[in-house]
Amino acid sequence: MPAVPPRISADQYRAAMRHYPAGVTVVTLSCDGAPVGFTATSFASLSLRPPLISFNIAHTSSSLEAMGKAESVVVHFLGEHQHHIAQRFSRAAEYRFADRTLWTTLDTGEPLLHGTPIWLRCTIDQRMDIGDHTLVVARVTHIHNPASDEPAAAPLLYLNGRYTRPAG
Length: 168
Hints:
The protein is mostly beta strands. It has helices at residues 10-17, 64-69, 83-88, 93-96; strands spanning 22-23, 25-31, 34-40, 44-47, 52-58, 72-77, 103-105, 111-113, 118-130, 133-144, 157-159, 162-164.
């Protein structure tokens, strides 16, 4: 009979995951006419046909209730020059949209951050509570990638508890 593996603490798990770099996105949505957004480093491409993406939101997030009601979101891929945006959307909810010069609203109602190199508008397909997070699966309905034939700005990464740029 195989030995039972030792229990892994949240601190051990967090310490290990800090060594895995993740791209930084900001997810924005509208709830009852108000802008809502949060930083997400759990973004992933799931499927080409149909075009599906995923991200996670913590059950402790101030944006969780709004995310539960949302029918659509915009996922912004942050560039290396946008660590201030990632930090802003990691802070208290009332601070995130306080500077009106940083964003506008799409015709469909979602907040759009200025200066993000690439963004995706998506409709929510599924939500699943998994552990202490909700996994959101969304269908991509619009891609904004104005320089698709040119190299994009270097992405912003999250590594070892800090926002950083790719080495190179």
